[in-house]
Amino acid sequence: MTTTAPEPTSVPGLTVTRLNGRLGAVVEGVRLSGELAPETVAAIRETLLAHKVVFFRGQDRLDAASHEAFGRLLGTPVAHPTVPSTDGRYSFPINSDHGGRANQWHSDVTFVPAYPAFSILRAITVPPYGGNTLWANTATAYEHLPAPLKRLAEGLRAVHSNDYDYAALRPDAVPEQLRRFRDVFAKITFRTEHPVVRVHPETGERTLLLGNFVQKIAGLTGQDSRDLVDLFQRHIERPENTVRWQWRAGDVAIWDNRATQHYGVDDSDDHERELARVTIDGDVPVGVDGRTSTLLSPESLPEPVHGIASGASTAATGTPTALPTVTG
Ligand SMILES: [Fe+2]
């Protein structure tokens, strides 16, 4: 039995326009900041839970501080586990300086147990063409599975890690990019076992939890594992299950990272593309059988190696370094 996220209550002045059948909505009538009325915040949260990814145009006035302040209205901002903050802010740069894109389907940071609940992405500089982002609804992907495949997925667990094969995924990467991936993004190897179907803590929906950070299905090796991951991932990526957004500078997208995957399309050649992301703390996933996700390595979760600890966004502690282009 799967529940559906409830329809959000309406707030005067706030307009919600659905984009596609299964996810995505544009919200108009609000200027995002850290000083929104509680009923506006509640309406945004309900809209987000119902539509999985929501878009706001014309938020040019947001900067790193107010972006983060708005994030605090949805929860607690969290630092990336390994990539340093260069300015003491939770705002995490996603740019094209190094020629890469997050062009693999993934949910953010699923290599740790309580991976982010929400990601808030703000477009600063957009290319003249291309550079769109796609999102897929992992709740409707589960919901539309045939019953035997639902049962199969519910019994599986998968190991997620940040130590994925970067070189294989980016055959055009230069040695400097490979070095940055190894020395910064994958400096500590995280491995977490998650249920393949998690029960959403706010909506009760069942969602498929897979994506780019999956190393293997627990208990299986090699071809069987890859075949099963591909089988379910294919359902997530079906075009009917996705929405695509063409960025303008000043746009903000917020997604429920527990009920979506996303993909940054790498098709704007060498044009600059600069976005900033604030992620909001999540909770440890629970499977249909009540089992929670478990951290396999390291033995305990360290404070972020570089950057800022949760709830202490004052000054950067790590050595600012050039950031690698990462996908999560
Ligand atoms: Fe991402």
TrEMBL record:
Gene3D superfamilies: Clavaminate synthase-like (3.60.130.10). PANTHER family: ALPHA-KETOGLUTARATE-DEPENDENT SULFATE ESTER DIOXYGENASE (PTHR30468:SF5), ALPHA-KETOGLUTARATE-DEPENDENT SULFONATE DIOXYGENASE (PTHR30468). One of its GO terms (molecular function) is 2-oxoglutarate-dependent dioxygenase activity. It holds the Pfam family TauD. Keywords: Dioxygenase, Iron, Metal-binding, Oxidoreductase. GO terms for cellular component: cytoplasm. Its cofactor is Fe(2+). Residues 19-279 form the TauD/TfdA-like domain. The keyword Metal-binding applies. This is Alpha-ketoglutarate-dependent sulfate ester dioxygenase. The keyword Flavoprotein does not apply. It catalyses: a primary linear alkyl sulfate ester + 2-oxoglutarate + O2 = an aldehyde + sulfate + succinate + CO2 + H(+); 2-ethylhexyl sulfate + 2-oxoglutarate + O2 = 2-ethylhexanal + sulfate + succinate + CO2 + H(+). Belongs to the TfdA dioxygenase family. SUPFAM superfamilies: Clavaminate synthase-like. It is an enzyme of class 1 (oxidoreductase). Its EC number is 1.14.11.77.
